[in-house]
């Protein structure tokens, strides 16, 4: 099937930013998951709630909060702008929106699987001389890997489908911040049904691939 | 080593103060008496409220001096009840997991992997995945892993409890070999009397978090009532004997107890090590008030009753016959024969009642 250059651009841009977003949140997601699953610290439940909040809040509300934070006059936006980094209305805004929206999915899945790792194994590893860092990377993460991979896949899919927060933080600028979801919305609004259906087909194909992949991957990866 | 610690638990405080220096020290007590908690405290896996833990001249924990080494710096090997092999690593990687230690509080003695594999007879398992091991194999692999981390002290938490009886009998000799080969002091937690008598040279008896007795195992355990109340399994006598000769046709072998008396046990070919251990159940020994004649039992030993302990209608009779033999009778039998402390008696033991360890 031959796609127009525009379709290609939108698809590849969406995939690339969603992938970047997933890679960026992966280390933080695993770290938070571990902190939630294994450690007790003050205000833990408050932090946990804040991290999970985007899961239940309307994405547009999250987008508005992000806009206030990262806008040129926002607390973080100002600081970044002074260092010539601008988040709003470019691909970085798309990435931030995707990352924030998909982060809770990764953390939740990874937290559950880390909590399921028998702490006795970590204890025994410590008595065998392993440092906490080595225990984390050689025992905890490999044993929790299924949940982490599943969480990353979920996060990636969520990032790809992200709409509400993205449109507020990054806008819907063709060729600059327009993702698959934003473009479909745009095409439908402007009556370009054929283009909208092409993109719809692409999203269905991708979704199929991910669901199938997330079912199939953990089963094959079992070998050591 | 010095073991002085207080740890608040849900139902009681674990409060132990003991100092000992033995090859194998057994911590003996009923389930829920705080034995595993104590091992966790020694390994640094559990918070100790106050006290001091010294191993091999090194202080691992001291509330007064504010010392609390993390587990990875304590140089202590730990074999938990369930083995706790890392399921995602191969047998080889499991065994070598702690092998890099050596400087950090490790034992300086030269412990070589091939030797450990040979002693535990697990060389053929090395290339397998952990999920392909039987219970007894997994336990020996976990033991090899702990030994190869060259620890100053080895903690064993009821290593045989999860295995069935037949397997227990086969694994126990491996533990004895580890004790004799590698010179690593061990603390062995169990509620099985046979294991204490077979392996330990010192025993701490713990109940509800308190140290109720300590000393050499036979004297400490078998003269007191504690044993019958604590032990949940068969009560057995364990003796170290010297091989004399054996007769395949007659189906028996002759051995000598350290104290002198000779015994007949089931046939075995002359063993490599002339000294070994045999066992006989306390329920498998008869007591005769007179010397029996014309009976099939191969062993008739004269002795004197030293102690009679009565618990729940059962009498644990200690008979001095060169060594202390423990015989469990009904109180009815004791009354019928008029047995008292000091009564001269004869012990009757079938040759086939003895088992070689």
Textual characterization of the structure:
The complex is a heterodimer of chains A (224) and B (357). By secondary structure, chain A is mainly α. Chain A has a single domain, classed as Orthogonal Bundle (MetI-like fold), CATH 1.10.3720. Chain A is built from 11 helices and no strands. Chain A has helices spanning 5-38, 44-56, 59-70, 75-82, 91-115, 119-127, 132-143, 145-161, 164-169, 180-189, 193-220. The radius of gyration of chain A is 20 Å and the shape is globular. Chain A starts with a helix and ends with a helix. The model of chain A has no long low-confidence stretch (mean pLDDT 92). Chain B is globular, with a radius of gyration of 22 Å. In chain B, helix 3 (113-120) packs antiparallel against helix 4. Chain B is of the alpha+beta class. Chain B has helices spanning 35-43, 91-95, 113-120, 135-148, 165-182, 193-199, 217-222, 226-230, 331-337; strands spanning 2-8, 13-19, 24-28, 50-55, 58-62, 67-68, 76-79, 153-157, 186-190, 202-207, 210-215, 236-247, 252-257, 262-266, 275-281, 286-288, 299-311, 314-321, 323-330, 344-349, 355-356. Chain B contains 9 helices and 21 strands. The mean pLDDT of chain B is 87. In chain B, a hairpin with a 2-residue loop joins strand 4 and strand 5 (58-62). In chain B, strands 7-8-9-3-10-11 form a 6-stranded mixed beta sheet, sandwiched between helices. Helices cover 22% and strands 36% of the residues of chain B. Chain B has 2 domains: 2-226, Rossmann fold (3-Layer(aba) Sandwich); 237-356, OB fold (Dihydrolipoamide Acetyltransferase, E2P), CATH 2.40.50.100. The chains are: A mainly alpha (224), B alpha+beta (357). Chains A and B meet through helix 6 and helix 7 of A and strand 7 of B.
């Amino acid at each position: 099937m031959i796609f127009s250059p525009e379709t290609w651009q939108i698809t590849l841009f969406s995939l690339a930013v969603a992938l970047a977003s997933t890679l960026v949140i992966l280390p933080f997601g695993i770290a938070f998951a571990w902190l939630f699953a294994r450690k007790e610290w003050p205000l833990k439940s408050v932090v946990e709630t804040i991290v999970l909040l985007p899961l239940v809040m309307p994405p547009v509300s999250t987008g508005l909060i992000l806009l206030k934070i990262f806008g040129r006059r926002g607390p973080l936006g100002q600081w970044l702008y002074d260092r010539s980094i601008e988040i709003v209305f470019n691909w970085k805004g798309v990435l931030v929106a995707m990352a924030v929206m998909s982060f809770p999915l990764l953390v939740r899945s990874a937290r559950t699987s880390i909590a399921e790792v028998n702490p006795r194994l970590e204890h025994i590893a410590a008595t065998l001389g392993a440092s906490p860092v080595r225990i984390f990377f050689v025992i905890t993460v490999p044993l929790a890997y299924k949940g982490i991979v599943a969480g990353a896949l979920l996060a990636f899919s969520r990032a790809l489908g992200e709409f509400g927060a993205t449109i507020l933080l990054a806008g819907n600028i063709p060729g600059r911040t327009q993702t698959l979801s934003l473009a479909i919305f745009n095409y439908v609004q402007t009556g370009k049904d054929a283009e909208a259906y092409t993109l719809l087909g692409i999203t269905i194909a991708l979704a199929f691939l991910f669901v199938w992949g997330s079912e199939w991957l953990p089963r094959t990866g079992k070998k050591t | 080593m010095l073991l002085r610690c207080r740890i608040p638990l849900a139902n009681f405080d674990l409060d132990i103060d003991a100092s000992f220096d033995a090859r194998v020290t057994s911590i003996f007590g009923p389930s829920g008496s705080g034995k595993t908690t104590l091992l966790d405290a020694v390994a640094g896996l559990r918070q100790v409220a106050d006290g001091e833990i010294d191993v091999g001249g090194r202080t691992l924990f001291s509330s007064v001096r504010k010392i609390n080494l993390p587990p990875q710096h304590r140089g202590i090997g730990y074999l938990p009840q369930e083995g706790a092999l890392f399921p995602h690593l191969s047998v080889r990687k499991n065994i070598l997991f702690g092998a890099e230690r050596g400087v950090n509080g490790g034992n300086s003695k030269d412990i070589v992997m091939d030797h450990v594999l040979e002693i535990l007879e697990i060389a053929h398992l090395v290339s397998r995945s952990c999920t392909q091991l039987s219970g007894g194999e997994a336990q020996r692999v976990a033991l090899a892993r702990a030994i190869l981390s060259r620890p100053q002290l080895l903690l064993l938490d009821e290593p045989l409890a999860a295995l069935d009886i037949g397997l227990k009998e086969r694994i126990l000799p491996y533990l004895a070999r580890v004790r004799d080969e590698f010179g690593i002091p061990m603390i062995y937690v169990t509620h099985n009397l046979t294991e204490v008598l077979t392996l330990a040279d010192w025993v701490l008896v713990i109940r509800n978090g308190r140290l109720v007795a300590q000393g050499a195992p036979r004297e400490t355990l078998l003269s007191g009532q504690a044993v019958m109340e604590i032990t949940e399994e068969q009560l057995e006598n364990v003796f170290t004997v010297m091989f004399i000769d054996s007769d395949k046709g007659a189906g028996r072998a002759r051995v000598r107890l350290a104290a002198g008396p000779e015994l007949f046990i089931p046939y075995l070919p002359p063993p490599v090590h002339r000294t070994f251990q045999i066992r006989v159940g306390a329920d498998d020994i008869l007591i005769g008030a007179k010397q029996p004649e014309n009976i099939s039992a191969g062993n008739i030993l004269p002795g004197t009753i030293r102690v009679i302990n009565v618990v729940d209608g059962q009498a644990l009779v200690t008979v001095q016959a060169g060594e202390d033999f423990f015989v469990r009778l009904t109180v009815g039998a004791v009354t019928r024969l008029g047995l008292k402390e000091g009564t001269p008696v004869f012990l009757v033991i079938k040759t086939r009642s003895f088992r070689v360890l």
